Amino acid sequence: MHDAAITLAPGSRRRAPREQAGVLTWMRRNLFNGVYNTLLTVLVAIALVLTVPGVITWAVTDAVWSGPGAQCRAATGACWAIIAEKYRLILFGTYPYDEHWRATAAMAIIVGLAIVSGFRRFWSYRLFWTWLVALGAALTLMFGGVFGLSPVGTHQWGGLPLTLIIFVGTVVGGMPLAVLLALGRRSELPVIKALCVGVIEITRGVPLITVLFMASLILPLFLPPGVTIDKLLRAQLGMIVFFAAYAAEIVRGGLQAIPRGQTEAADAIGLSYWQRTRRIILPQALRIVIPALMNDIIRAFKNTTFVSIIGLFDVLGATSAAIQDPEWVLYAPEAYLFILALYFLFCFSMSKYSAGVERDLNTGRGY
Fold it and tell me: What does the DSSP assignment read for 318-338?
């Protein structure tokens, strides 16, 4: 028995069909590639035709962009004048009016360094220390009391600077703790492993609100008489532990994905535990879990809204306070839409950055 040879005549060979491009081709492939997709596309198109003109009329054509509340009440569209009237309270909370430049400078430092961190050429361990210095500079501007700056207590902080400081503090403080918890959970020492498992599972077993209430109300009861910890610092510690507990499980997943042969090879060339972890295992593990970590970081940004429950006025809490003015209380939807756009800007930027990093590093390759 032998295989029959197939010989094609020179004239019978055909070229591969050319890939078609264009709007119609894209629509046929993505919107009308089946009965159900065609029906869904038609229904969505009808819904858009019925709603979009009204939304544009309300949000743009008939909207009031500036002026007093009486002008808004006489109009039929949205009242964006509330943003122009209350933007300082929304963005800075109860921070002293004359010192808003300090809060603006603190935000500029954080956002500027976040943009710089997006360039891979700056990725190194020095970037972590740079973030610590930047966070210290932002806190110095916010606190004052040095360099001729008037002191401002944390009870006066609020708005977007407070949101950004809590978010950056959560990630900068939570990531090292998450790595230590992940390594501790895989430790061969029973005490360390049990301690790390306990911290992770107990924290993951309760909602963030419970952690914040524990940090805000229960923790002071266990402090020695005369010892007090600032409410913002207590909330920050709670946010760090909560973020670290979830991120630790993500990092542990990356550690488990590293082939055991690499650990054995590092042992064979005489590397210590910390040398092989820092130089071989951990960089690969973090590279694998970048998408999941960025997802957790975005969630940490949105979780900052929970601090308003314990009396800290983040940007959402400051907005709620701003719309308590009787003249503007009717226009809360416009104020919350502004906050929605603000959160979308930050979260969408981080999401696109994560997608870019994932594409550049080609994570998942070979795993």
Answer: HHHHHTTSTTTGGGHHHHHHH
Q: With b meaning 16 or more CB within 10 Å and e meaning fewer, what string describes 66-80? A: eeebeebeeeebbbb
Q: Residue 323: which of 342, 313, 343 has the closest Cα?
A: 313
Residue 159: beta bridge partners?
Answer: 314
Residue 161 CA to its chain's centroid (Å): 15
Give CA angle at 192 (278, 252), nearest 5°: 50
Which residue blocks in 205-327 are alpha helix, DSSP H?
208-213, 231-257, 260-268, 273-276, 282-288, 290-303, 315-322
Q: pLDDT digits over 95-144, tens only?
A: 999 999 999 999 999 999 888 887 877 877 788 888 889 889 999 999 99
Of 301, 312, 297, 282, give the one whose Cα is nearest residue 344.
301
Residue with the two structure tokens 């500029």: 108
Segment 78-97 mean pLDDT: 91
Task: Name residues whose C-beta falls within 8 Å of residue 253's C-beta, 6 or more positions apart in sequence.
Answer: 288, 289, 292
Across the range 141-157, mean pLDDT stands at 90
- Model-level pTM? 0.83
| Nearby residues of 156 by Cβ (< 8 Å), 6 or more positions away | 93, 94, 95, 96
> Which amino acid makes up residue 114?
A
Asked if residue 5 has pLDDT above 60, the reply is: no
pLDDT at 10 over 70: no
State the pLDDT confidence band at 6, using cuts at 50, 70 and 90.
low
Dist. CA 240–CA 249, nearest whole Å = 15
Mean pLDDT across the chain: 87
Helix (H, G, I), strand (E, B) or coil at 80: coil
Q: Which of 57-66, 238-247, 259-268 has the lowest mean pLDDT?
A: 259-268
**What is each CA distance from 38 to 21, 22, 41, in whole angstroms?**
20, 19, 5
Distance (Å, rounded) from C-alpha 255 to C-alpha 272? 17
5-26 in b/e burial notation, b at 16+ Cβ within 10 A? eeeeeeeeeeeeeeeeeeeeee
